[in-house]
Structure to design on (63 residues):
């Protein structure tokens, strides 16, 4: 049984094979935007300061 692979996945796999230096840039980009150190105190303050949202925000009968 053949496993499906989309055209985009094939393209990206082949492109990464031809341009291995892009893996380093990809990791740097991820670190820039996503991989951030976690601060437990900040997470606690954010969790504690949440305000409950009404079930349907735009319902004019619930304001």
């Amino acid at each position: 049984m053949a496993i499906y692979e989309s055209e985009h996945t094939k393209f990206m796999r082949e492109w990464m094979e031809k341009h291995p230096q892009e893996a380093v840039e990809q990791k740097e980009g991820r670190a820039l935007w996503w991989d951030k150190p976690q601060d437990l105190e900040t997470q606690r303050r954010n969790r504690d300061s949440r305000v409950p949202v009404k079930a349907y925000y735009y319902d004019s009968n619930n304001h």
Notes: Helices lie at 7-18, 22-33, 40-48.
